């Protein structure tokens, strides 16, 4: 084999390796961009502000990820690591065979309850668009915010974890009312306890639901079915 042929074969081999490397790099980058875009859409739906869902991991997206991690007791990496992707629902989590699948909640109603769970004990002012006047017990928005903040401070209230257990009706496209039941772990005056909260919602328009009433029940540690009335309010 001549020197020229050897040089040509070496050149072809180098080009082939570069093409393979470039293809793998582009494929990986595309997958990462897709994950970032999906995470941006989910974060935006959860009330965080990652900016436009463009698949770019910019400072605004990192701040939104960090805020989400802080709210959900995740490692504060500001990255889309495995725990964060799993918490956002972007990694499949196998269910136990004996656990039935959770009902599909009404999207808008579910987001309304989620906003309450996330912001009640940190930024109650963000809840005003989600509450009826009946829930505020006739108080004007600023008066309700002050009252709520005073109650939170007096009780040293914080929510530790929560899960949605029931949504009725499960497909409420034509319904004017819905009920969302949530099981929570909360801390009040330094004491941790379990409670079940039942949110009554009314439809404001074809896309918007408002919280109209909240019933809060303490849950016995012996089992979630043993309920003792703790407080029933049209607000907190």
TrEMBL record:
InterPro entries: Peptidoglycan-bd-like (IPR002477), PGBD-like_sf (IPR036365), PGBDSf (IPR036366). SUPFAM superfamilies: PGBD-like. Residues 33-88 form the Peptidoglycan binding-like domain. Gene3D superfamilies: PGBD-like superfamily/PGBD (1.10.101.10). This is Peptidoglycan binding-like domain-containing protein. It comes from Candidatus Entotheonella gemina.
